[in-house]
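Q: What structure does this chain adopt?
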Amino acid sequence: MSSLPTYEQIVQLPALFDRTVPDEFIDENGHMNIGDYFRICSHALWKATITAGLGEEYIEKHEKSMFTVEQHMRYYGELRLGQHFTVHTRLLERSSRVLHGMSFVVDQENRTLACTQEATLVHVSTASRSSVDLPLAIGEALDLQIDAGDALGWDAPVCGAMGLRKR
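A:
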């Protein structure tokens, strides 16, 4: 795993969620539950794919979507009731069918990284339930997001065990 990016580096990425921890996110340990971290990170990555053209209209019209096939989460701090947080997503790499990305949950009050979720998604025909190539225009839109993240000049703290398969 590469070293962690700083607060200043992460917030260069657009915030796809900006909110405070609500009561319903709090678990028995008095902090945000892992299921809620998972949900917000997954939804932030989904929002990044929507920006590239993979939203509900695309799914309905083309009967294709992105299915998540692998995730890796790491926690670096806790978020408690009422704390302000943001979620930032960075697309890392792609092939003709697979996308590798990462979401960062940032504790805005302490200016620290609270959690990362790394994920691999596959473009799938919802009719056949098998992987299919991404359309050229969507691939190009994803590439623009990947290039924008690369231009920031810092390495994402990937786990090293997932991403695009090398054949």
